[in-house]
Amino acid sequence: MSDTSVELDEQRRVYDNFYGEGGFSKTDPSDSKKCVLISQDWFNKWVSYIGRCRPEQLNCQSPSIDDCGPGPVNFSRIMENGKLKSNLLLDVDVKAITEDLFNNLSRWYGIDGLSSDIPWRDIYKTDKNEYTFDLYPPSIKLVSRENYANFVLNCHSHKTIGFVKSCIRKKNNLENETEIHLWDAQDKDELTDDETVTLKECSLVGDK
Question: What domain of life does the native source organism fall in (predicted)?
């Protein structure tokens, strides 16, 4: 058996460990702390490559990755200036894969670009006991109208208005009873004072 058939068999086995019939994920999200975003187009090419190349169809020599395979994992379709491009859709433009699968893919095909450009996402548990991640995690620039510290708050979209206010109080050594009001600088609207409302419900996702 050629090295190529062994490698393709391994890739099929790994794929089958992660995905069932129809491409549905078989992994338990609670088993992972992070996932990686890759181009859906690259993922589709990889799946096509390992699905159509049976061992009996291969020559003795390994097929060229450039001719048959998807090539190195390339993030240029989904990343720009170190950030995920705007308005991308999950499972249309972007595929979220587990850290273990990404490690395998990068070992087989390599990475085209800097490791610092890899878009990792934290997997977290919501208050409804559901595991999820943010395609565009909130990165909120908090600017005070008074003489308080300005800072950037990076968190997930299921954090609440109350959480943001607590971070402001902590950053500025304020008492817990200190009254704080928040405005969306982009829309010029005052945000709700209901501290149970999430950032996602306020449309505070991505860079704000």
Answer: Eukaryota
